[in-house]
Prior knowledge:
The protein folds into three domains: 3-93, Uridine Diphospho-n-acetylenolpyruvylglucosamine Reductase, domain 2; 97-207, Uridine Diphospho-n-acetylenolpyruvylglucosamine Reductase, domain 3; 210-429, Vanillyl-alcohol Oxidase, Chain A, domain 3 (3-Layer(aba) Sandwich). 52% of the residues are buried. The strands form three sheets. Strands 10, 11, 12, 13, 14, 15, 16 and 17 form an eight-stranded antiparallel beta sheet that branches. It has a five-stranded antiparallel beta sheet with strand order 5-6-9-7-8. It has a four-stranded mixed beta sheet with strand order 1-2-4-3, with helices on both faces. It is α+β, with helices and mostly antiparallel strands and 454 residues long. It contains 14 helices and 17 strands.
Amino acid sequence: MTTTESNAIPAELDLATRGLVLEPGTAEYVVEVTGFNVAVDHQPAAVLVAADADDVAAAVRIAARAGLKVAVKATGHGAAATGPDTILIATRALDTLRIDHDARTATIGAGVVWQKVLDAAAPFGLAALAGSATTVGAVGYTLGGGLGPIARTYGFAADHVRSIEVVTADGVVRRADEHQNPDLFWAVRGGGAAFGIVTEIVVDLFPIQTVLGGGVFFDIADAAAVLQAWRLWVPTLPESVSTSAAILHLPPAPELPEPLRGRTVLHVRFTHVSNTEDGYALLAPIRGLAAPILDTVAEIPFAAIASVHMDPVDPIPAMERGLLLTELTEDALAVFLGTAELPFAVAELRAMGGALHREPSVPNAVGGRSAAFSLLAIGVLVPPIADIVPEALDAFVGRFEPWSSGAFVNMAGAATGAPADRVRAAWDSVTKDRLDTLRAALDPTGLFSPAARW
């Protein structure tokens, strides 16, 4: 595409859409392309802040005619950059949010973050299957599967989607559910954004008002003993419990509780959803292993579920790599413990099993259901470690290959290279073939950029 043709794209978008159109070289453009992950440098040909699904459809048609690609940004937690061959659609104005307390559903626009959904559902005594960080966009999280803090009890977020509104590569707005466009509905739930741009979803809500949730922080010197016990404890747990364990290299930040500032710690996260079981008794074997630095486990409103993991809420320059594990052997655990000496902010193991192992009533494309654990490592790209983090992440995850069973769409890391191969490895051959066939049929020219694909 010539420079003149490229410069014409913003003007064409402006004529065809109702939303705000931004072009390179303006301050507003810089603000709009900057997301939560500030390590990612976006340089699209133009940005459309879509006002509705019709705007999205118009932008897709314009991109197709111009030979450009299309990418989507909600909060910018993802780590796939967009370049000048791409139109970036920002979804922040797609802010539909409706709670139907009788049907126990939420209708959620692509620009809505999970905390808004939780806050809207709470007055009705209802909860949605948000992730550990509730500042993440609800739609993008769900399309990648959605592994949240109560996942062992209710399964993946993608398992509880009733319908979607999606713009396909032909620039048409479609509805999809188990009866209408069922193949598309199957693929998008767990297959990610490679099949269309989802502008709205309808999801199930659950009658949950409070949970027993929080974390126990141990000194890193106690990590080996605690993690060994945690590894043996996880298989004994009922489905009412979801848990993860993370080694955290914490900065001396004033927003952190004073006992945690500037320390390397082990954080055992725990969430219990039940009216009959004693959650404190279930946690007791872990709580008593060593003297905790801090123990935050308590009865909390479900709308405060982000307090369990305590993920950062301010933008950071981050890089991540993830993997699914078939088992957590003593050798694998020894590799994990080595992260205490590596330049990572977080290395986490999440226990799978329970409802995650079961297919939903309406099948979807979520992969990795048989995995025993999910592994995630995150590095922050700041001096003096910025240059060594990428290689360290890849080497660390590579050491888990003997126990690997693929990776989740949302947690693999980069959209290309080894992470993308790991995502494909999470699907069996039948599912992969079906996804490839559908993708070829729905997007034969590869309109959706690598940022929207696996």
